[in-house]
Fold each of these.
Amino acid sequence: MFDLTGKSALVTGASGGIGASIARALHAQGAAVALSGTRTAPLEALAAELGERAFVVPGNLSEAAATEQLFKDAEAALGKVDILVNNAGLTRDQIAMRMKDEDWQAVLDVNLTAAFRLSRASMRGMMKRRWGRIVNITSVVGVTGNPGQANYAASKAGLIGMSKALAAELASRNITVNCVAPGFITTAMTDALNDEQKQKLLPAIPAGRMGEPGEIAAGVVYLASEEAAYVTGQTLHVNGGMAMI
Amino acid sequence: MSDIAERVKKIVVDHLGVEESKVVENASFIDDLGADSLDTVELVMAFEEEFGVEIPDDAAEKILSVKDAIDFIKANAPA
């Protein structure tokens, strides 16, 4: 099950914990992967670890032209993009009353607008081949909200709405568009939380622990697979039960 | 030049799965031939490929009928 031999995937944010784990998992199922991110060194290290079928395509998602170019580079390296994983994301946390316009815009640009641009760029080939998978990595806070994250929560909720619209547009062409919504996962982003914050967090998670990046990657592999062809417009929540939606 | 018209009609027939007799020059893709908006995008992509011509979005939006497609290609396709 979930064999991805012969498929090609572009993963953004592949230098981060969850993105790297997604790239490893897709690759392990047989897919060729293009690894995108702003920091080249960890991408090169990951590509070296994966060996064959792995390519580095650096790119800056905060800018339109660079995002379009990134997709072209990925297509050139892979030959085609069957699977697009919009995983890149950043946070600029601040209570709304203190949040600057640029902090709002920077988060929306990378988390939501770049995901739209890459999705749009990928559709042409997917429509021609009558096969495609777009998986957007959103977040539990896109559904529940979180103080200090008006920008981040808006961007992640936006991904869910966008995915549903794209899913409706593309379903007849055998292209599915879904989201995976992580809860609290052990990554650099959550390492920034102090012990007190973590102690408050854990009682709210029925599983009693934080999640692992591989547990997100497993959901992405499923949604990218042939077996998930009839699943579209959905959000798969992977959060240890902290929000049951 | 009639060759262009024949090739355009063939693409339309193949793509939309409609009877050749219905693909007359004045036929509208959406109103007469049952295309949806995604079909019209795919037709434009197919025309681009067949004739080696780039059809920008603003021009593509105006290609609504078989005749529109033939006229655009006649005016823009490389000889």
Amino acid sequence: MPEPATSQPDVIVIGGGLHGCSAALHLSLRGAKVLVVEKDYIGRHASGVNAGGVRQLGRHVAEVPLSVASMALWHRIAELVDDDCGFESHGQIKVAETEAELDQGRARVAQLNALGFTHEEVADRAELRRLVPAIADHCVGAVVSRRDGAAIPYRTTFAFKRKAESLGARFAEGAAVTRVARSGTRWRVETADGGRFEAPVLVNCAGAWAGRIAAQLGEPVPLEVIAPMLMITARMPPFLKPVVGATGRTLSFKQFPNGTVLIGGGLLGRAVPDENRTELDYAKMSVNARTVWDLFPNMRGATIVRAWAGIEGRMPDDIPVIGPSGTEAGVFHAFGFSAHGFQLGPIVGRILADLITDQTTDLPIDAFRIQRFRQTAVAA
Amino acid sequence: MTTRYDLAVIGAGPAGLAAATLAAKRGVSTVLLDEQPAPGGQIYRAITQTPVRNPSVLGSDYWHGADLVGPFRDSGADYLPGSTVWSVSRGLEIGLSREGAARLLPAKHIILATGALERPFAIPGWTLPGVMGAGAAQILLKTSGLVASGNVVLAGTGPLLWLLAWQYLRAGARIDTILDTTPRENWRQAMPHMTEFLRSGYIGKGLKLLLEVRRKVKVIGNVSALRAEGDGRVQSVVHRQGDGAEARLPADTLLLHHGVVPNINLANAIGCAQNWDEGQRCWVPTVDDWGATTVEGVSIAGDGAGIAGALAAEHRGRLAALDALHRLGRIDRAERDRDAAPHREALDRAQRGRVFLDTLYKPARDFRVPQDDTIVCRCEEVTAGQVREAVKLGCSGPNQTKSFLRCGMGPCQGRLCGPTVTEVIADARGVSPAEVGYYRLRPPVKPITLAELASLPKSEDEINAVLHH
């Protein structure tokens, strides 16, 4: 049954993760009536359980302008969502364990400088030790992005939701989309719990499930469903402020203000998206533990109290799909953030609002066009 | 010893001992993994080692545990005490730590016999040193012959509260006062189930025990409010009887107990479905008559599949083992059913009177749903009031309050707060706990060290080296 005319939304957003909630917030700020349809609850998957890294460091060059713009929003996040989201900016650091790795870092910084970006810089051995006193002796230097940091993922997603809600956005949780179809000039969305919604504009922020929505719209994409693993320790004495990664190995490592230490970096478990379930791969987690063992000798007595994996969508080129549909008018996508979408959340919602209300945006999003997969999807 | 066992049983209480014994005797390669250094679980804790040798202290029901250990020793099952199981995968690989090293041990079928935990009893001041669970006090008595000294106050409700009191008195310890929190109206509700209870065989023993305790200890009944107070440790217990005025008792030790709930952490982390048991007010893994869960190859026996007590647990262990034999292709369905018949009869007898006990000893709402200033999550120091605030903001279940407040994220993984948080959220929303759900628990269900994880061996030789050293 259609919604009563008086409550008919202008935009239906599929997916209540950070990007969906951010889109809802930015659209609501511009006076649009938004309905977010979420199959579980807000922040249930990758948005609520990721490592919380707010990182410009090491991003794909196509993402850098968006990341820089998003970082500006992060540093004023409370003005946007009335909550500081637990955001703390102590920098992010990518450690080099060899001179060759440090040379890679130097080349990267030079590349960014040539493009006009100055947020990454090379830190020598002494500066690395000043920033990360606990780092192992063999590490020779690092690349640093000083304005980077970390936030609390679920709290952030929840804050975007609540602010959007306070501006009039509505959220239908526990509503899994079973069908999207054009109905005249409008989009009709049907959900498993019997919901029937219509709006002229549809936004696909369905994360790991976004490929199914895109396929229904006639533009299948080679989205891979992945399950990046994380683990956390019991409380340790404070020893680390920045978020630390490694150049030659997979690692994301940070200590929370309460002393617990989060270890991740993107090693993958197995996702079972139809059951909302993930399985951990202990052999890979063992590798992750070994990396920490090597880089942080003070962690050798640490205790792991919890490990988990989120369910996330990854594109073959490891950058997201952002922008209008290649097949249907009134449809916009933002998905496939490939395990590094959290930092982009604040800006991507704004970009979607730009595209929907102004038909254009001032940020470069060509690299993220969904059309780039036309050939591969057909081949697949 | 083989590396891939047909059957792995986790937990060496009555259910695990009985299951492993039956399976191994019938020729199935079986391993029993247990965290403790000696068999017995909690109910028969330290049965082979207890320094409390006078049989009248712990009572004949305790010493029945020895009857399970002997046959187990003779069964041919392998036994790995001191094994902390921290994970079971869908592929039936058991993650365990033993003597400082972690290993993955595969099995073809797994029976979880992880037993029960004390229901968290969150009152103001329950985190003060000197306040502990009656179950913990009982473990100290069984394993080390230790009893609390000074002014000892017992508070709460349930058969184990009275059993501990009786054991304490038998051991020569002093108990100053028992504060009985059993709500008066429970008696009225339990009465219809009295006839069945009278046929149970517990009644004689239970009454004798109760009367002996009541002769020796002052019991204050119908206690409706409790608070532990003290500077740095518990010094007094403030309580109220019915609608009466507050009264204060001096206390060096306050032992709290209001029943036990299934220890569901491992089953939950595996992904076994669970359901809310309204009668026992707790989450229970969803199992069939044989203890089989919704996850292929994983069964649960004993109190971990719903509280029914130690005697029922051993029969449930045997039923689960027979079903495992069937699933492993060792016996057909008819043989399983035929061999199960005496165990089913014994189980029915052992469960008689359970509804009466559950109804009589159901904790009062005020003790299940604490007031705002009471800490519910001890690991992260989250109060009931903070949980209620989060509900007001839109957190509709324990996983949201966990992500929002960190409650349940500490090393205990919700063992000390899960049931309370479920009840507080359900109460605040005015819905059933069944609707608000429970934490999705994460492996490792018991902490492991980074060193153990980093050194996780991959080859069979390495696994064997650890298991056999």
